[in-house]
């Protein structure tokens, strides 16, 4: 798609809510900034995005979002360095993935320049909202949903694209305890698991709640056919270290192709860490946990960054991960966040200055 | 749950839109009546439902429905007989299925009396909207969605339950041409296919559009593991007649347990028709189509009623169904609609007078 500079119309909020926010005590995703990007799809095309005050959305009760789950989203972050410069991490990857999700969900693709230019304009306007407290960042939520009306089960004729910002603290506090799930599944072969589609998340809530009730933080999904191989977690791809080899499941139409995952694979390559992208059997994990070759497990995702796993549960048995010196999780976390916060050279070309 | 008579508060619309509606030319689900039921879940419980004028819904951009697809629905119809009496067909089955869907999607279950009493009250108020043109009926859409806010991927703390009505004509016009799908899937083992969850429908739009582009009306889904067995269509369960035996796939966690399907199985039993609920291989269908033992195929669902299939496509070959005298589809359609419109004895106790 053609990329051009646009004039994004800005309607400023009359007052700012920023004074009411305690930036030292941010939870995840429950405080929103003063403005948002809104862009409507009508009569067969996307209108030019505008920046408007953050405000409620009004929809007919028959709007298809309420009935048929036609919605997709992205999750990104903006970072501020010591010079007050603003940085994004691989934003075009999010833009392209949003459009991959769009296609699978029969949602019209958003022009890349509409996405990028409106995002940058909103970031410039809201720059004071980007937290500088360590571990905090500005969480960015681009999303598209079906705003067109009607009870016929078919794609809507109107959509809304919105970008909203939430200054946020850590997604998880502390190490994560996960349960390997054998009964419920996240996605099907030939399904929509590779898309960041709304329904993929709602479907995880109930099984995750059952795991939380047993004392775990998250579920690790297995393939829906045999339940023998681990796939990914609710909002993170999963990495395993056996001896010195880093393992992760291959992407497929059931697994989200995570940008953090992709970055870790590149860093591992440049660090000379042996990597295997292949199916990981639960039985292999348990064997490795028992014989001591399982050194680390961690989740990787934009919201959770790198989240070390302390324990995994399987069939009512808990397996604790050891404390491993020179941890890969710590190495990747440092390397990625140093690039994100402009604390180190960016040899990969991932950082974008806003 | 306890059932009690409630006093449902009614706020009447100032004017009615009914004069603008051409009841002889109704499409499916794009005209809505003057009022709707609204019921909010807040602070851990469902408030008493109210009837209010049909009006737009206002939500924060962070409302979880926009992000995580936490939504479920039902599809029912109301029928009017020659005496202006109003009838529902197995409404408690819809109410119970809505709560089955609710549980799987981590949505709080709606009290059965809230559902039934508010539905009946709304039907009485909107009785003039129930079409009497043959083939038309009042389509009823109960639905629940996550109205609570926040970007954290976890269940919402607030929900809205709404019942809206749409006087509607036929869902399909004429016989249906279907494509048996081998690549894309509707649902996973251990997934949410048995729930009437929004995301199940959005996931079908793209593959269905590909089938429509090839000249078909609908997709018949196969199991996501082998793609060898037929499951159901987008909004219908599928029945096959081989010689005089009626076949349908068993329900599972991948298939919606349709109320029309359930009713057909009962009628078949009472008519002495041999029935087999078992896996149906695509190869078996093709063999039967070739040797002439495949007599009928039809879809069954509330919206589509009984929809005879004229042709099924598989791997670029079309197989035409023959014209079969004493068709089962015609028998079931007559039997079910005669009960629905109060034209015949209801030996099954399915009809409920409003
Ligand atoms: C299901 C799922 N897997 C993995 C990820 C990690 O992807 P990324 O690293 O691009 O954030 C996410 C979330 O972002 C996700 O929702
Ligand atoms: C996926 C699916 N299968 C089958 C059906 C048929 O179910 P019922 O007969 O209860 O309407 C429906 C719709 O209602 C449906 O959405």
Automatic annotation (TrEMBL), chains A, B:
Cofactor: pyridoxal 5'-phosphate
Keywords from the UniProt entry: Amino-acid biosynthesis, Aminotransferase, Branched-chain amino acid biosynthesis, Pyridoxal phosphate, Transferase
UniProt-recorded Gene Ontology molecular function terms: branched-chain-amino-acid transaminase activity
Metabolic or biological pathway: Amino-acid biosynthesis; L-valine biosynthesis; L-valine from pyruvate: step 4/4; Amino-acid biosynthesis; L-leucine biosynthesis; L-leucine from 3-methyl-2-oxobutanoate: step 4/4; Amino-acid biosynthesis; L-isoleucine biosynthesis; L-isoleucine from 2-oxobutanoate: step 4/4
Family annotation (Pfam families): Aminotran_4 (PF01063)
Enzyme Commission no: 2.6.1.42
Catalyzed reactions per annotation: L-isoleucine + 2-oxoglutarate = (S)-3-methyl-2-oxopentanoate + L-glutamate; L-valine + 2-oxoglutarate = 3-methyl-2-oxobutanoate + L-glutamate; L-leucine + 2-oxoglutarate = 4-methyl-2-oxopentanoate + L-glutamate
Annotated family: Belongs to the class-IV pyridoxal-phosphate-dependent aminotransferase family.
Function: Acts on leucine, isoleucine and valine.
Protein name stated in the entry: Branched-chain-amino-acid aminotransferase
Lineage per the UniProt record: Bacteria, Pseudomonadati, Bacteroidota, Flavobacteriia, Flavobacteriales
């Amino acid at each position: 798609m053609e990329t051009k500079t646009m004039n994004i119309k800005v309607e400023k909020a009359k007052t700012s809510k920023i004074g009411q926010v305690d930036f030292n005590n941010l939870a995840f995703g429950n405080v929103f900034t003063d403005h948002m990007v809104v862009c409507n799809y009508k009569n067969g095309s996307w209108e030019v995005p505008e920046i408007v005050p953050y405000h409620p959305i009004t929809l007919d009760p028959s709007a298809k979002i309420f009935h048929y789950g036609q919605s997709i989203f992205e999750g990104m972050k903006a970072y501020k360095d010591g010079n007050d410069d603003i940085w994004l991490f691989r934003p075009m990857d999010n833009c392209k993935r949003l459009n991959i999700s769009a296609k699978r969900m029969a949602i019209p693709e958003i022009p890349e320049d509409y996405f990028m230019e409106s995002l940058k304009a909103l970031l410039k306007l809201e720059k004071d909202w980007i937290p500088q407290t360590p571990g905090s960042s500005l969480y960015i939520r681009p999303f598209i949903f079906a705003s067109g009306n009607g009870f016929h089960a078919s794609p809507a004729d109107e959509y809304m694209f919105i970008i909203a910002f939430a200054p946020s603290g850590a997604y998880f506090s502390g190490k994560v305890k996960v349960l390997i799930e054998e009964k419920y599944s996240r996605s099907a072969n030939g399904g929509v698991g590779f898309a960041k589609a709304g329904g993929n998340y709602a479907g995880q809530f109930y099984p995750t709640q059952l795991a939380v009730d047993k004392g775990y933080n998250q579920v690790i999904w297995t393939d829906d056919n045999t339940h023998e191989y681990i796939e990914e977690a609710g909002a993170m791809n999963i990495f395993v270290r056996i001896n010195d080899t880093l393992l992760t499941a291959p992407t497929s139409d059931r697994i989200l192709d995570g940008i953090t995952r992709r970055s870790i694979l590149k860093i591992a390559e440049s660090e000379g860490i042996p990597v295997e992208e292949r199916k990981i059997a639960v039985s292999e994990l348990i064997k490795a946990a028992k014989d001591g070759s399982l050194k680390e497990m961690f989740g990787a995702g934009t919201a959770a960054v790198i989240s070390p796993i302390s324990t995994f549960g399987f069939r009512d048995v808990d397996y604790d991960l050891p404390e491993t010196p020179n941890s890969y999780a710590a190495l990747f976390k440092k390397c990625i966040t140093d690039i994100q916060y402009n604390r180190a050279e960016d040899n990969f070309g991932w950082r974008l200055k806003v």
